[in-house]
What we know:
Layout lengths: L23 H14 E3 L10 H5 L5 E5 L5 H9 L4 E6 L2 H14 L4 E5 L2 H8 L5 E7 L17 H10 E11 L2 H13 L3 E3 L19 H8 L5 E7 L1
Parallel strand pairs: 1-4, 2-3, 2-5, 3-4, 5-6
Antiparallel strand pairs: 6-8, 7-8
Helix pairs in contact: 1-4, 3-4
Amino acid sequence: MENEDQPRLRSVVSYVNRGGRMTVGQQRAWEEHWPQLGRTVAELPPGPVDFTEWFGREAPVLLEIGSGMGETTSQLAAAAPELNYLAAEVYEPGLGQLMLRAEKLGVTNLRLLHGDAVVLLTEHVAPGALSGVRLFFPDPWPKKRHHKRRIVQPEFVALVASRLAPGGTFHLATDWEHYAEQMLEVCSAEQALRNRYAEEPGGWAPRPPWRPVTKFEQRADAEGRVSHDLIFEKR
Length: 235
């Protein structure tokens, strides 16, 4: 809440509220691991979260917004033990499934936040606190009348940029061409960020080999949709 614009951010754009019951395994993972690994955004005390205290160590903090069912997130956290890896998600069964996957992989550097990432960033993350933010395949809201619901809007990108440390990265990916173009336009207009791959054709980042291919990306490929990655860096 550093300027008058941020309160105008509509939290509705950051997710779709989907219901769903947990499986037995997800419920077991929630009961066993949530007290240590998870927190609910709406129940956080005022002010920034002390990530060093929560993780039990000092390390770069990376936030992934929208971890879904945790397939990608668990693998990325396991592959980067040097990071304090945060996953923000609104779908409880997805967080339960992520804890199951993390348990199977022996991941210890992951913490989970249940709730709206816009509220999290605005009220509970200090400026310059993050080494990176990842936003992989957010809801595309493909109908034109719904484009205003997309999370990648100028106010949101400015908020993300304000929470990145100098040199920190904002990595986005989508398989919807028009949304990719919107992401490129909006992020390029944010003066605090620069496109790390501005000299590449179209300004797109090469697809990083470390980003797992999800079933949704496989489906997009089968349907003829090309996935685009964008990596912006805090100036």
